Amino acid sequence: MRSLVSDLLQLRLDEQHEGKLHKKLYNAIRLSILDGSLPTQSRLPPSRDLAAQLNLSRNTVLTVYEQLLAEGYVVSRTGSGTFVAGTVPDSLLSAPLTASEKLSASLPSQLSARGQHLLSHSNASARQWGAFLPGVPDINAFPHALLRKIQSRVSRKPQAIQLSYSNAGGSSALQQALVEYLRVTRSVRCSAEQILITEGIHQAIDLVSRMLCNPGDLAWIEEPAYWGIRNVLAVNGVNLQAIEVDRSGMNPPEPGDAPPKLIFVTPSHQYPLGCVMSLERRQRLLALARQTGSWIIEDDYDSEFRFSGQPIPALQGLVDDAPVIYTGTFSKTLYPGLRLGYLVLPRPLMQALKTAHAELYRGGRLLDQEALAQFIREGHYTAHIRRMRLLYARRRARLAQLITDYLGKEALSEFNDNAGLHLVLSLPASCDDVALAQTANARGILVRPLSRYYSNDTPARGLLMGFAAMEEEEMEPVFAGLAELIREAPGSKNAAR
User: Fold this and answer.
1) Measured between alpha carbons, how far is 180 from 229 in angstroms, rounded to an integer?
2) Domain definitions of the chain by residue range
3) Residue 363 scores a pLDDT above 80
4) Torsion on CA atoms 214, 353, 194, 148, rounded to nearest 10
5) What's the mean pLDDT in 281-301?
6) What is the CATH number of domain 126-137+383-488?
7) Which of 493-497's residues contact partners 24+ apart within 8 Å by CB, and which partners?
8) More confident residue, 57 or 103
C-alpha cells in the first residue's frame, strides 16, 4: 500500500521542474526533514517500496539514502530500516544560503502586508487539468479548427484600430454580439456601450473594487465563496463580511450602521455549493441595495449549463436600472486559457470604469475579440453550448451515480442543483478534507476541499469534484481510488457499499 511519506515526496518532486532525479529526490527528503514534514525518528519507506511508488529506479533511491546518511539527516538501524535523525546536522546551522534561499528569506520584509496576506491565502492549484478537477470544461470537445478558421479570416487584413490599445471597453463587434446573446439567454437588459470586455473575472473584480471601494470599506460575500474573490478584495484593502448561504441562496441581514459598498453573489448557481437564489431573496437584495446605495456584483460564471427545467433569468434583468454589475466569462463555455470575460455596467458607472480599465490594464486582443464576435454571430457559440450541455449532463449523472453507489446517498450534498460543472461530495464534520484532498492530489486525483471556501471557524467538510473534462467510462477506476482514501481517512465513516 502506498504510504503518506510517498505522497508527500511526490508533491515535493512535482514542485521541482529542473535537475536530475537523484538530486530532486534528495532535495525533497531534505526539505521535508528541515520543515518538520518528516519528524525526527520517523521511518522512511524501504528503498524498494519508495522506488516503486515514485516510479524511480531503486539505485536512485539507494544513492539518495546513502547521501542523507553520510550527511547525518537519517540513521540506519540494522533490521529495522532508515529513520530521520534525532538532531539536525551541525554543519547545516552554518551552511551558506543558496541564492533562492536568500530570496525566500528576504521576501517577507520586502512584500507589503497585503502581498503577504495574498500569498498566505493562495489556493490556486499547481495542476489545472486532470481527473475530477472542478471548474474546467472539456477543452478537447471545443471546435478549435473552426475558431482558427475564423481567426485566420479576421487577421488577413486587420484594421489599424484592431492592432492598438483599446480604450472603448473592447471590440464593438463583440460588445454588440453579447448584447443580443445575453438578452435572449439571460434576460439581461443592456446596450453595447454598457459592456466592458476584461481578461477574466479576476480582472473584472479587481477593477470594480479599486474604483468603487476605499481601503476599509465593507463588502458582503457569500459563505462559502470562491477564494479568488476574497483574495482580490483583500489585496485591495476591502473588509469582508461573509453572509451565510442556505438552500435559497444568500440570506441578507439588516445592513446596520455600516452598509456594504459591494455585495457579491452567484444567484443562478451558487459557488461552490450549487443552490439557486430564490425570487424572494433576489427581490429583497435588490431593495436593500437601492436603500443603502450598494452595488450588487452578480457573478454568472456557468449559468449556461443547466440540465433540467427552464433557464434562470439573471438578477440584473429583474427590474429597470437595477443596481447590479453583471459579470460573465468564456472560461467555462469555451476554455480558460482564452482569458476573456465581460462586465455589464450600470449607466452611471460605465464611462468611469471603461476609462479606468484603459488606464490600469491597457486593453487589447481586439483581433481575438473580433473572431469571437463572428463565432457568436454565426451561431457556433450557442451550438457548442447545446452540445456541451448534453455531454455534461451525462457526465454529471455518472459521477452522481458513482458517489451514491460507493458512498451512499448522504455523500451527495443536498445543495447540489442540476447545473454547473462540479458536484460536492459531503464528508463528516470530523474528517479533515484538506488533508484528504492533499493525499488525493498526490495520487493524481484532483479534488478541492470544501472547507477552504469558508471564512468561519466551523466550515462544512467535503470535496469539490469536476466532471466536465472526464469521459464517463474513465470515471469509475479513479473514483474507486478516491473512495478507498475516504474510507481510510481519520474521521470518515466507512460508507462503502
Assistant:
1) 28
2) 4-95, 126-137+383-488, 144-379
3) no
4) -120
5) 95
6) 3.90.1150.10
7) 493/428, 495/406, 495/407, 495/408, 495/410, 495/411, 496/406, 496/407, 497/405, 497/406, 497/407, 497/408
8) 57
Residue 481: C-alpha distances to residues 376, 445, 446 (Å): 41, 8, 12
Q: 298 - beta bridge partners?
A: 265, 326
Residues 6+ apart with CB under 8 A from 78: none
* Tally of CB atoms within 10 A around 239: 15
CATH 1.10.10.10 fits 4-95, yes or no: yes
Look up residue 273 and give its amino acid. Answer: L
Beta pairing partners, 462: 426
Tens-place pLDDT, residues 208-217:
999 999 999 9
Which stretches within 362-457 are classed as H helix? 366-377, 380-407, 433-442
The distance of Cα 195 from the centroid of its chain, to the nearest Å, equals 25
pLDDT bracket for residue 496 (50, 70, 90): very low
The residue-averaged pLDDT of 325-343 equals: 92
Question: Which option is the CATH number for 144-379: 3.40.50.10490, 3.40.120.10, 3.40.640.10, 2.160.20.10?
Answer: 3.40.640.10
pLDDT of residue 99: 45
Q: Is 161 helix (H, G, I), strand (E, B) or coil?
A: helix
DSSP 165: -
pLDDT digits (tens, 9 = 90+) for 230-241: 989 999 999 999
Tens-place pLDDT, residues 417-455 = 788 899 999 999 999 999 999 999 888 899 999 999 998
